[in-house]
Amino acid sequence: MENIIRKLKGRSLKEIIFKILTKIQGLIGCIFNKWYDENHSTFGRANRSVKINRILEKEIKINYNDNYSKDVINNLHSLYMNHYFDLLGSGWVNVKYGMVACGVEGIKFDSKINIAEIKYDEIWFKELLRESHMDYSINVWNVLVDGIKEFNVLKDENYVYEPIDWQLDFKSGYRFNEKNWYRNQKIKSGKGYDIKVPWELSRMQHLPQLAIFAQMQGDIKKTNESILEIRSQILDFILMNPPRMGVNWTCTMDVGIRVANMVFAYDLINTVDSKNILDKEFKKIFIQSVYDHGKHIINNLEKSDNFNGNHYLADIAGLLFVSAYLESNKETDKWLIFSIKELIKCVEEQFNEDGSNFEASTTYHRLSGEIVVYSFALISGVLKTDRKEKILKRITNKELKKALAYFDFDTGRLIDEYLIQKLYRIGKFIVDITKENGDICQVGDNDNGRFFKLSPCGNLLKTEKAIEIYINLSNYKTSKQWYWDENILNCETMISSYSGLFNRIEFEDAKRKFPIEYNIVKMLSKNTKYDVCSKDIRRNSTKVFDNNEPLKYRKETIIKFNEAIDLNNMQYIEYTDFGIYLFRSNKLYLSICASDNGQNGTAGHTHNDKLSFELNICGSDLVLDPGTYLYTPSSDRRNQFRSVNIHNTISVEGQEQNYIDKDKLFSMKNDTRCNLIEKGHNHIKLSCRYRNILHTREFIIKEKELLIIDCCNKDFKVNEFSNLISNGYGKIYKFKGIQSIK
């Protein structure tokens, strides 16, 4: 009720009546659409030619190096080929119908699929799908099977495909229902299951990686098997996920990311498909599905009256990839023009002037930053083709003309200097918050969100070692000797992608380590590169005093270093729009969070972490942010990891900095205000006020210690540094941290 009143506040009676009537009309339409989709085939029937545009003109030529070792590539290639996935802390799991899950936080479900009954015949499809969707799905299954039979006959192989259960939360065992309409899927918090798990798998982010691995290995047999596997997985997904049915059409963001990865994997593997494994029948079904994805996105945009965040940005990027890859016609060109216009608008609205993201989360900045760099590269590449002439003929709206004025149509280059600078700063922000060990600091939520996952980035561990490290793997069982542990916090792959668009020295190290991203962006943009000057746009910080109220309570904390720090070699960096302050040298990294609550105060991905910090000395972490761990499976865990008590700051009278409604997992009261009071080459003082509490915290870096001085107008305790760390969604481990403190 409170939310409704807030939305109607300040509106005229006419506006309120119009809004109510629009809502009623929407509800009636929703009821009709549900009935129609449940009783008619939702698969498209457009008479489309079997044609899809090629953006990448050659295969990826990448040599093995420290990051692309043969052991890592072979291991991951084998896992994906055999349908093993490690997503959101699941451990490497063979995802199939009837599998038994390990459970989450002690909760485990029966997927209610009897393995003995799986025959993949008409009876089986009838069990899982509505009758109105069966004919098309059975046809797609037959195309899948026929392709395998032909491959095995021609190659004298015995390739076998076992379908993936796309509706399964394979962590908890809870199974969503593909017979249910997409808007009627259960998303209940605190019940032990996680809708993000099937969403994450169905983003298909493993397919481009599988395509790249197939090329890197230089083995024609493995390449052909990989092409067939990609073909089979795409067809498997299409036939078991009729549009607007089941869990994987519920969130448009995931639809957008999925279709971008599907067309991208298709483009990558096409460069080496010499045997025409991606045959005419596959292409016909595939192109229709890409079109169905585009229709779904344009009809289900996650647009809000309050703000448009990363979900809307991903929607637009997905539509951009659909419209760029599908052949030009009136509809797809309209989508393309709309995508370009909205993408520019998203960058203007969702990224601050200093390049940081408005959601007050460093890992959500990474997600949005990846979407932006690949999307703008694609736009430049498309505008260098004859597509631009067709687009120009269809521009009639002044607003669209204005959006396309950001580009030079003769070269496909951006010409708006302000936008170029902002794009550069998005990448520079990640460079600046990256530690010596390659990780970024965590501020706010981390849900492992990515747009493309191309280069493997992490560590190959013995399985018993991984189980020993991670608490979330306590019930994990596998016969596999090796465990690939993806490093979610290493963002050098994103930095490498920015080196494909910008000639800047700060991106070069990442480009050398992870050349795939550099090469892909370069190919997407058709060699469009920008030379930019790094302009200092930081504000002139002035002293801010909250009031003259004496701060009666004071405590000091000293963290000692084993090695001396050169104070003359200290770099101070501030992002005042975001609210993150950093001190860096060749031996020290200190990041301090004094952010606002993001999303225009909605605080959807914010934690109560004001004046909290991370500390790294000589490449080793001493103090870490606790991370996120889980969203909806456990509301208790969700609230624990965004609570003030778990962060490296102070607690006052048991109060949260921003009031948390335990039932609202993606919003908090907008109670806090942080200010910079003073700064110097080796010290900084900040304040945080919430309600009747005023807290100031001063950091003083000395040669062999960090002195932290906390002052407050109320009695308080300095929180113990968190030893429970989530370095990625669903992952959790015990962190030893620092020993020398007083």
Describe this structure in words.
- The protein has about 750 residues and is of the alpha+beta class.
- The protein has 21 helices and 20 strands.
- The relative contact order is 0.10.
- β11 (about 615) and β12 form a beta hairpin.
- The model has no long low-confidence stretch (mean pLDDT about 90).
- α10 runs antiparallel to α11 (about 310-325) and α11 (about 310-325) packs parallel to α13 (about 360-380).
Secondary structure: elements and pairs:
Layout (H helix, E strand, L loop, with lengths): L1 H7 L4 H27 L30 H12 L2 E2 L7 E2 L27 H7 L2 H25 L40 H6 L4 H11 L3 H21 L11 H19 L9 H20 L10 H16 L4 H21 L11 H21 L4 H8 L3 H7 L2 E2 L4 E2 L2 H16 L25 E5 H7 L12 E5 L5 H8 L8 H6 L1 H10 L28 E8 L10 E5 L4 E5 L3 E6 L19 E5 L2 E4 L11 H8 L7 E3 L19 E8 L3 E8 L2 E9 L3 E8 L3 E3 L5 E5 L2 E4 L8
Antiparallel strand pairs: 1-2, 3-4, 5-6, 7-17, 8-9, 9-10, 10-11, 11-12, 13-18, 14-15, 15-16, 16-17, 19-20
Spans where pLDDT lies below 50 across 5 or more residues: none
> How many beta-strand segments?
20
Which word captures the global form? globular
Question: How confident overall, as mean pLDDT?
Answer: 90
Major sheet: arrangement of strands? 7-17-16-15-14
Structural class: alpha+beta
User: Beta-strand level of the residues, as a percent range?
Assistant: 5-15%
For the report, how would you describe the main beta sheet?
A: 5 strands, antiparallel
